[in-house]
Amino acid sequence: MSHITEISVEIHDLTALDEACKELGVQLMKNQKQFRWFGSRKSSCDHAITIPGNSSCYEIGVKEKAKNSFSLEWDQWAGAQGMVAMVGQDATKLIDHYGANVAKKQLKRQGYRINQSIGAQGQVILDVS
User: Fold this and answer.
1) Is the pLDDT at 50 greater than 60, yes or no?
2) CB under 8 Å to 78, separation ≥6 — which residues?
3) Cβ atoms within 10 Å, residue 67
4) Quick check: pTM over 0.90?
5) CB 33 within 8 A of CB 44
6) Has residue 30 got a pLDDT over 90?
7) CA 54 to CA 127: how far, in whole Å?
8) How far is CA 55 from CA 14, 35, 40, 86, 105, in A?
């Protein structure tokens, strides 16, 4: 059954989200005010995540909850027409990459060097020195 669900993550850094999207081959569309889901239905949002070149994919809506605090909503039914393959079931890859980008920014500010790699099961691994 198709319906919109909220992804279990709170976004506080749109730049880190944009970087995570680029790493996964999807695109953060800033100021896109609707996101597409089942049967070409649309719901309101402040920004959206889409797959470039896939006009039938279900998109992820980025909704501002409070100043600089965003939630993510989507419909992952039927693989979200390709989105699940890009961002993972329950958006786990997107959440992982977002968290890694937030951590990298903080670590770089503290003077650390970071090397990033991807583990055998797709997880982000940060080597910090």
Assistant:
1) yes
2) 2
3) 5
4) yes
5) yes
6) yes
7) 34
8) 23, 12, 10, 15, 32
Q: Report the alpha-carbon distance of residue 126 to residue 79 in Å, rounded.
A: 29
Chain centroid offset of residue 24 CA: 9
How large is the angle between the packed helices 14-24 and 92-109, nearest 10 degrees?
120
Q: What is the DSSP letter of 87?
A: H
Smallest CA-to-CA distance from 6 within 104, 72, 79, 92 is with 72
Asked if pLDDT for residue 73 goes beyond 60, the answer is: yes
Residue with the two structure tokens 């992982």: 96
Assign 25 to helix, strand or coil. coil
pLDDT tens-digit map of 85-110: 999 999 999 999 999 999 999 999 99
Only one residue has tokens 């790699």, namely 117
**Computed from CA positions of residues 76, 5, 122, 49, in that sequence, does the dihedral angle turn out positive or negative?**
positive
